[in-house]
Specification:
SAM-dependent_MTases_sf; Rossmann fold; eight-stranded mixed beta sheet; 8 strands; S-adenosylmethionine-dependent methyltransferase activity; 9 helices; Methyltransferase type 11 domain-containing protein; 235 residues; alpha/beta; globular
Amino acid sequence: MANITFSHISSYSLLRFVNPFPPLLPTNLSISRHLFPLHPHQLHRWWQCSTFCCWIHRLCDSTVCCLFVFAAGNFFYSAVGLHYEMAQRIVSCVNDWSTVKVALDIGCGRGILLNAVATQLKKTGSSGRVVGLDRSKRTTLSTLRTANMEGVGEYVTCREGDVRSLPFGDNYFDVVVSATFVHTVGKEYGHRTVEAAAERMRVLGEMVRVLKPCGVGVLWDLLHACGICPADSKN
C-alpha cells in the first residue's frame, strides 16, 4: 500500500505518495477516497479519466513519488522562490543520489530543477548525469550556460525533443522529474479540453516508459491540468 502524506506551503496543498501500487487496484472512487481524503469531490472527477488509471496500472514496476499542487495561477508562475523550494523537495524524494547514473528533467526550462538535481549528484560524488529535455533549442543552450555558471555543467546535458515521444529507450533512467511543465502540453487544443488532456497523458506515459523498474519519478504541476475527464471540459 502506498505511504501517503499531505503537506502545505502557503496556498498550496501537496500530495506525496511513495512505493508501488498493487497490481489490482480498487474502483476509481475507492482510489480517490484513499489517496485524496482531503479533496474527495474534485479528485474523484480527476481520477475518472480511464487513460490515467491505465497509467497508474503501469506504475506497478516502479517506485514513484509525485507532488501535485492546487494553486492560484499568478502566484504559481511568479514565485521563483517557491520553485527553488520545490526543487529541493523534489530531489529529497530520492534516497540515495550516489547510485543514480542517469536522470531526466522533462521540460527543463531555465534549469531550476535541473541544476538542483545536478547539485545533488555533485554533492554525493556521483558519476551520474542529468539530461534536461526541452522543446526549444534556444532554451537548452541558455540552460547549459546557467549550469556552467552554477558549477554543475559537467553533470548536465541538455537536449531538444518532443516530450510526447521521448528520444530515449525503455527503462533508461534511474530518476525522472518534471516541474510546472506538463500543463503546457497540448495547449494548441485549449487548456481545458479532452484533446489537451490526452496529450498530457502521453507525456505521463512516456515518463513511465523511460523510467527503470524501481526507479523514482517526481512530478510537480497544476493538478487540474494533468488529466481532465470529459465532464470537466464542459465546466
